[in-house]
TrEMBL record:
Residues 183-197, 866-875 have a biased composition (Polar residues). GO terms for molecular function: gamma-tubulin binding; microtubule minus-end binding. Pfam families: GCP5-Mod21_N, GCP_C_terminal, GCP_N_terminal. Residues 29-40 have a biased composition (Basic and acidic residues). GO terms for cellular component: gamma-tubulin complex; microtubule; spindle pole; spindle pole body. InterPro entries: GCP (IPR007259), GCP5_N_ext (IPR059169), GCP_C (IPR040457), GCP_C_sf (IPR042241), GCP_N (IPR041470), Mod21_N (IPR032797). Belongs to the TUBGCP family. This is Spindle pole body component. Residues 84-174 form the Gamma-Tubulin ring complex non-core subunit mod21 N-terminal domain. CDD domains: GCP5_NTD (cd22572). Keywords: Cytoplasm, Cytoskeleton, Microtubule. Residues 29-51, 172-197, 851-877 are annotated as: Disordered.
Length: 933
């Protein structure tokens, strides 16, 4: 049956249903028009004025084919639904019918199945076994006959009678014309075509119009053109050994679907967790290009599409970190832009308004500007997921690196893209930083900020040092992006400054004077393309971010610094420490030390009476305006047990190390002057006290000839005064070096550096550097321990020299008293001779022999009144030596120690080579010149 006949039949039925609207066509015709046969009734529709218009419309209309994939997907879902509802008989029946359709493979099978699906309504709950059996037993209605009258009405050419005349195919002679007869019987006219005429009262089905053909070749070409038939359609995977040729338009559709994340036949997508892999189906090909070229082009599409699909999978996952959420939202917006652009491409190909050339290469080039940024973001996501410590700020760090690399490569499009995204994410990351440097507060539960609070109930002096800390990575690096490392310290100090100002009740001043001229942090402002297009992004960002941090830091630090100097008295406290520990005021220092030295010599109890020492210190230093005398305190370490040892310790300069001065500072001052630095102050104070002690012992009496010294030989007095002057020169040179070359210049520089310091951390660093420099230059560092020990030995020599002189005087007095007694005794006994020992051996510092025979009941022990000091290992052997020889031994030891100190200082200066070592060399030169001069 021709297509026109099929359309005519369908239009007649449509018009009949519209005119009378019968529920049953055949029954309705008889009941509506009694006495009129169906043929006459049909004539009313054939002459209807709308029929020709409807036919022309249907002939000129092309309808889109039904999507077979959607139909088979719905059928698979219906099969599964039947089995879920327990209607296995329905699922089996559906499966059998589909197998039959697949075996027949009609051209319009998808349309038929779609039509059936549209008619179905709640099949699992309404159909029964009886319905299926009844549907199988229903007899097929007879096909309506086709009549020539209907054809003549449909086609005007068939109305001419000449069309129905027989045609002679013989030559044009008329001899056989009479003999020609029609071989067709008169009864075989147009009315005898019964096999193709339609019935009057039967329902027309779509299967009745199926075209039967034996042209297997043409049928196979139609099947091959529908490339989806060879794919998995229903419950089976047919094996295909040959390539299926598709058009470039079909391939373009598959590529666009792949970019959009939809299922395709040309590509097979496998999703696993946060990754998506794409494989190319190797059963398709294009006619106009080689297979290798086609697959090479498809591989380039899969490389781009896999990055896009990975992003689609990642954005579907929920994220908790705010920074990652913003990053994810930005990617979603970019994917939406891509989907919109792909939809525009599809619309241009499906409904073109002008001539369009379908080209896979053209689609690839057209989508590259949108895909390149997404591919770059996919690389960031892949690296982020593979990080062992995947902190959220790692995405920000990777964006920073991508921005720098894009600029170096000259890729301006990617540079702008990455730069804008970087600053959008940065605004989220700096929220806790802003809260810290503006309010001094840490957000609870913030795991991305590099500042954390160790304890909230810590003591106030440790507020700056111990309450907050900077978080570190397991490898020791800063818990923050690399590009924030230069500004991390300033950020940390700004927040701590605000916390300290809150405790000092000065935060209101900060808020009232805070300006609103905060620099902007966005790509257009920081990386102004017309102006800074040649400047590196890293430098531009460092300058902009540093300016932003300084705008917050400078104001808070200046207010805290001003508060420490003016309200808390930092300058006054430092001056008080200098006067107390460094004895900056010479007269007051001499008054304070003389009291201690006198009590040491006279063995008064006030030496170990800390209350007497505190009272003396407060009265002495109280005259200085910067010293708060009520804060001053002194403590003593316990002395060695035993009378002789105690006496020995008191005479040694080492006894002064048990004296400790305390001067408590207020907690804001202790932030700058840490308690650990007070130990260094105490060490310098002890060293100065020891030098003063040796100098005091040598110069406590004026240079005069003792009344009992007239019997001493001149060769004993001259070495004594020479050696004494050398010791005084050494102590004065050393004290001058400590005070004038070390402490005073360092203190002045420290005061100037404190005024120039930007924040409290710099002030702490200035003071720590100052006290360390004083320790190093004062010969108290660990490198000069041996030199310092020898310096103390030289100082001990001064005390030892005076002890020897006191012993010499005591021996002389004892000998004189003994001689006088013996002279008186011998005057009574002229026969007794005086021992030469007592007459001539006055130069030996030793105890007289046979002292018991003098008639005195008490043993005279001059050495017990002034005990030896621990100076050298062979000191006991010197007691029995002559006085002059003892002087020569001490002088020899002095030269040896001073030479060692001088050469050691010069060698250490050459080895270290720093500014501190320069003073060591100066002191070494001074000692060497004085020793040889």
């Amino acid at each position: 049956m021709t297509q026109l006949a099929i359309l005519g039949t369908l239009v007649d039925e449509l018009l009949e249903s519209i005119i009378d609207a019968p529920t049953n066509l055949s029954k309705g015709v008889k009941e509506a028009v009694p006495g009129r046969d169906s043929h006459n009734y049909r004539g009313t529709t054939k002459s209807h004025p709308r029929k020709e218009q409807i036919l022309r419309t249907l002939r000129n209309r092309e309808w889109a084919r039904t999507n077979p994939f959607d139909v088979y997907s719905r059928l698979d879902g219906l099969d599964e639904k039947f089995r879920v509802y327990g209607q296995d008989f329905l699922a089996n029946a559906l499966y059998d019918q589909r197998r039959k359709i697949e075996e027949i493979s009609p051209q319009w099978a998808p349309e038929i199945l779609h039509f059936i699906l549209e008619l179905s309504e709640r099949s699992p709950t309404t159909l029964t076994h009886g319905d299926i059996a009844l549907a199988r037993e229903l007899p097929s209605e007879p096909t309506p006959p086709l009549r020539w009258e209907d054809l003549r009405l449909e086609d005007p050419l068939l109305r001419d009678e000449i069309v129905w005349q027989n045609v002679s195919f013989s030559d044009e002679s008329t001899d056989g014309e009479d003999e020609f007869r029609d071989s067709v019987n008169s009864t075989e006219g147009p009315d005898k075509v019964q096999n193709y005429s339609r019935g009057d009262n039967s329902y027309i089905r779509l299967e009745d119009f199926e075209v039967k053909t034996n042209d297997q070749k043409g049928f196979q070409e139609v099947i091959d053109s529908q490339f989806w038939r060879s794919l998995n359609t229903h419950l089976m995977r047919p094996e295909v050994s040959e390539k299926k040729v598709i058009t470039e338009l079909q391939a373009a559709r598959e590529v666009l679907f792949l970019y959009s994340g939809y299922p395709t036949s040309l590509f097979q997508v496998t999703k696993y967790e946060d990754k998506a892999t794409i494989n190319i189906s190797d059963i398709y090909s294009l006619n106009h290009i080689s297979q290798d070229t086609f697959f090479s082009l498809l591989r380039s599409f899969t490389k781009q599409a896999s990055a896009v699909l990975n992003l689609r999978v990642w954005v579907a996952c929920s994220q908790k970190a705010p920074l990652i959420q913003v990053f994810q939202l930005f990617i979603q917006d970019k994917l939406l832009e891509l989907d919109t652009y792909l939809s525009q491409i599809q619309q241009r190909l499906i409904d073109p308004v002008e001539d369009v050339v379908v080209s896979l290469v053209g689609i690839k080039q057209e989508t590259i500007p949108l895909l390149r940024p997404l591919i770059s973001l996919a690389e960031i996501i892949t690296k982020f997921n593979n990080e062992p410590y995947g902190h959220s700020f790692r995405c920000l760090e990777m964006l920073y690196d991508k921005t720098c690399i894009s600029q170096i490569n000259g890729d301006n499009a990617l540079y702008i893209f990455h730069g804008n995204l970087f600053f959008k994410c940065l605004q989220i990351y700096i929220r806790p930083i802003r809260s810290w440097i503006e309010e001094g507060e840490l957000q609870n539960g913030d795991s991305d900020f590099f500042v954390s609070e160790t304890a909230s109930d810590i003591s106030l002096p440790l507020l700056w040092e111990s309450r907050f800390k900077i978080r570190k990575m397991p490898d020791g690096t800063l818990y923050a992006p690399r590009f924030l490392k230069p500004a991390a310290g300033r950020i940390f100090n700004t927040g701590k400054s605000i916390v300290v100002l809150k405790h000092l009740h000065k935060f209101d001043i900060l808020q009232s004077t805070t300006g609103h001229d905060e620099p902007k942090l966005d790509f257009d402002t920081v990386c102004n393309q017309p102006i800074f297009h040649l400047a590196p992004f890293s430098e531009l960002f460092d300058m902009a971010f540093d300016a932003w941090v300084r705008s917050k830091h400078r104001h808070a630090a200046s207010i805290l610094k001003k508060t420490l100097f003016s309200s808390c008295g930092l300058h006054t406290s430092l001056d008080a420490l200098s006067h107390i520990y460094f004895l900056a005021n010479g007269s007051i220092g001499t008054e304070f030390t003389s009291f201690i030295f006198e009590n040491l010599e006279t063995s008064k109890a006030s030496w170990i009476d800390k209350f007497a020492l505190v009272e003396h210190a407060q009265s002495t230093f109280g005259s200085i305006s910067t010293v708060s005398s009520e804060r001053l305190g002194i403590s003593l370490l316990p002395l060695t047990q035993g009378s002789e040892d105690t006496r020995k310790d008191r005479l040694s300069i080492k006894a002064l190390s048990i004296l400790t001065i305390h001067y408590p500072l207020s907690w804001p001052i202790q932030i700058v002057v840490r308690p650990t630095t007070i130990i260094s102050y105490q060490r310098i104070f002890t060293f100065l006290l020891q030098v003063r002690r040796s100098s005091y012992f040598l110069s406590r009496q004026p240079i005069r000839v003792d009344s009992l010294d007239h019997i001493s030989r001149s060769d004993e007095r001259l070495p004594y005064f020479s050696f004494r002057m050398r010791l005084l020169w050494f102590t004065q040179t050393l004290y001058h070096y400590l005070t004038c070359l070390v402490l005073e210049p360092c203190s002045q520089k420290m005061q100037a550096d404190l005024k120039m310091a930007e924040d409290v951390d710099m002030m702490i660093e200035v003071h720590s550097t100052y006290i360390k420099k004083c320790i190093d230059q004062a010969l108290l560092c660990s490198k000069l321990d041996l030199i310092h020990a020898n310096v103390l030995k030289v100082l001990e020599l001064g005390i030892k020299l005076e002890e020897m002189r006191e012993m010499k005087i005591a021996v002389n007095r004892t000998n004189i008293s003994r001689n006088v007694s013996e002279v008186d005794y011998m005057s009574l006994d002229p026969g007794h001779a005086i021992d030469d020992t007592y007459c001539h051996d006055y130069g030996t510092v030793r105890q007289p022999r046979n002292l018991e025979s003098c008639g005195s009941d008490e043993k005279i022990r001059p050495a017990s009144s002034i005990h030896d000091t621990a100076s050298s290992p062979d000191e006991s052997s010197l007691v029995d030596e002559p006085y002059a020889l003892q002087l020569r031994h001490l002088e020899k030891e002095f030269h040896h120690l001073v030479n060692f100190v001088s050469r050691g200082l010069k060698g250490a200066a050459r080895a270290v080579g720093s500014e501190d070592a320069r003073l060591w060399d100066i002191l070494g030169e001074m000692l060497e010149c004085g020793l040889t001069g």
